[in-house]
Design goal:
This protein is an alpha/beta fold. Helix content is about 30%, strand content about 35%.
């Protein structure tokens, strides 16, 4: 995973002072690394009977769609309010400064589905936990969660409880 971590760029004071943003765009610009990332995100879950991959808006769409293609399954977008045209399930969750919502189409998943959730980064775990709840509102089962980057010092794993967690690069 050193090849991946070597291409992740630190951007100080983005999006606000004191934050060091982990920029994955150099990874996305490299076709070989994109292939390595997508293969590595799914590898621990390949034999889990996954029927769909869910990805959180926005960068989870990129990595989730790549993972879904590797597994030859569909991709389910977990979106911000007002972005999905049909009836949705919704989960509201707390952020450091306020709250947010994620939505999924009510008919996107069923009790027969086994879902891998994919995102670019896990920090405090709030978005990931809300995503798990949202998928379960559809009746589907979470097989695991997979992230390109994990900020271990923010203890997102603690928020996710017993869901299997896989991350490629840890800080």
């Amino acid at each position: 995973m050193k090849a991946i971590s070597d291409r992740i760029r630190d951007i100080p004071d983005f999006p606000q002072p004191g934050i060091i943003f982990k920029d994955l765009t150099p990874v996305l610009a490299d076709a070989a690394l994109m292939n390595l990332v997508s293969e590595s995100l799914v590898e621990p879950f390949r034999e889990s009977g996954i029927t769909a991959v869910g990805g959180m808006e926005a960068r989870g769409f990129i990595f989730g769609a790549l993972a879904a293609a590797k597994l030859n399954v569909g991709f389910i977008p977990l979106r911000k309010p007002g972005k999905l045209p049909a009836a949705t399930h919704c989960v509201t969750y707390d952020l450091e400064y306020g709250s947010a919502e994620l939505h999924v189409h009510q008919d996107a998943l069923s009790e027969n589905d086994k879902v891998l959730l994919v995102d670019d980064l896990i920090a405090t775990g709030g978005t990931a936990a809300a995503s798990c709840e949202l998928v379960e509102k559809c009746g589907a089962q979470i097989v695991g969660t997979s992230f390109v980057v994990e900020l271990k010092f923010l203890n997102g794993r603690g928020v996710l409880g017993n869901y299997p967690i896989h991350s490629l690069v840890q800080y």
